[in-house]
Specification:
The chain has 378 residues and is α+β, with helices and mostly antiparallel strands. It contains eleven helices and 13 strands. A six-stranded antiparallel sheet has the order 4-5-9-8-7-6. It has a four-stranded antiparallel sheet with strand order 11-12-10-13, with helices on one face. A three-stranded antiparallel sheet has the order 1-3-2. Strand 4 and strand 5 form a beta hairpin. It is elongated and about 125 Å long. The model has no long low-confidence stretch (mean pLDDT 87).
């Protein structure tokens, strides 16, 4: 049937096996009906079976110990005998259990565990007691301090509910926590613990999957779940989408954790819908980098400066990144400095020093007028 792709009622029936004693049973039943309805006398049965071609159905051994171990309870011998007799199985008791010969219509009974299932099914699953596993505690238990996995990175996605009873609100979010080593065990360098910028980079990578790079901002904020001074609100296309920062000490005390833990929570829509990528040819003209160091009031964050740089640099700007941030260790000082690296490139020509200087001047002027930032060294 499979070789010739013949899906018929006969193939559907015979590929699942047919009782080879069925013809004799069918003939006996038909003869009985004819005699009851029409009378007459039945002649002898002529059997022309080729027994060499019939399936070999040998006896299956069922051990009493195996039956008890798999059922979790010991059944009386009379109970098991009654199960086999009720099912019409030919069986012979032995010193260690039973030898059972399955009927010709039960093609699924081929091994010892099949007979265990039959005994359980015909006895009734609800008749077996519930035996809970026994766990013995040792005298010496390893202290948690010697076990405590220290490097942990977990994430979860799920529904978040807020609002009021009359007006409930619901959204799908993704969150993550991280603590422990940032680099793992390294022979060539000294390890360090994770910090705010590690998990901030994880969030940026996650948002980048949705093609939202360049449209994401992190603004310093205050949140009861995070430690003051190490918390930022996440904005994508100007809309608030979540928070990232160091978990507050109060929350860590509740769960008895004495190590720094960093976490983030982000709206699922920000990372689940990806824009269709657009192909841009690679420019064959070289890139030019220019570093600019500014001094600002300490209230100015890097995100605002980056927006100002992008607006002032124009179309030649390919990338802008913060490469250094410094604040003097002086409680009276209210100024800080940040260094930005601007990468410029044209798709049509080589850039001249004059063009690069002009872009840098536009950036310096924009930063000075909008953020009161001054170029260091002036």
């Amino acid at each position: 049937a499979r070789a010739f792709s013949l899906n018929t009622d006969a193939s559907h029936r015979f590929e699942r096996g047919v009782d080879f004693n069925l013809p004799l049973k069918a003939m006996a039943r038909a003869t009985q009906l004819v005699l009851e309805l029409c009378g007459g006398t039945a002649g002898p049965v002529i059997d022309a079976t080729e027994k060499a071609h019939l399936p070999k159905r040998g006896a299956i051994t069922l051990r009493r110990d195996r039956l008890t171990r798999m059922l979790g309870t010991a059944l009386p011998k009379q109970k098991v005998d009654g199960v086999f007799a009720q099912a019409g199985y030919a069986f012979t008791p032995s010193t260690s259990g039973w030898k059972v010969k399955p009927p010709t219509h039960r093609f699924d009974l081929v091994a010892e565990h099949d007979l265990v299932e039959e005994v359980a099914r015909l006895s009734g699953y609800d008749t077996f007691p519930a035996n809970r596993p026994r766990v013995l505690a040792g005298e010496r238990l390893a202290p948690e301090a010697d076990v405590e996995v220290r490097d942990v990175r977990l994430f979860e996605s799920g529904h978040v509910f807020w609002g009021t009873v009359r007006k409930p609100l619901e959204s799908l979010s993704i969150g993550g926590v991280v603590t422990g080593s940032a680099t793992g065990t390294r022979w060539d360098q000294k390890g360090r613990d994770v910090d705010f910028f590690d998990i901030k980079g994880d969030v940026e990578s996650l948002i980048d999957l949705a093609g939202a790079s360049g449209r994401t901002q992190f603004a310093a904020t205050v949140h009861p779940s995070y430690q003051a001074g190490q918390c930022a609100e996440i904005f994508v296309d100007g809309a608030s989408k979540g928070f990232v920062g160091r978990v507050s000490r109060e929350m860590l005390q509740v769960v008895d954790i004495d190590r720094p833990v960093f976490a983030f929570e982000l709206d699922w829509e920000s990372v689940s819908r990806r824009r269709v990528p657009q192909h841009l040819p690679v420019s064959r003209f070289p890139q030019v980098s220019r570093d600019l160091s500014f001094e600002f009031d300490e209230a100015i964050d890097a995100a605002r400066v980056m927006d100002c740089i992008r607006q002032g640099a124009g179309d030649l700007l390919q990338n802008a990144e913060v490469i250094d941030s410094y604040k003097e260790n002086d409680a009276k000082s209210t100024r800080k400095s940040m260094t930005f690296r601007l990468t410029l490139q044209s798709e049509y020509r080589n850039l001249t020093d004059g063009e690069v200087d002009a872009v840098a001047k536009h950036v310096v002027d924009a930063v000075g007028s909008e953020l009161a930032g001054t170029l260091r060294g002036r």
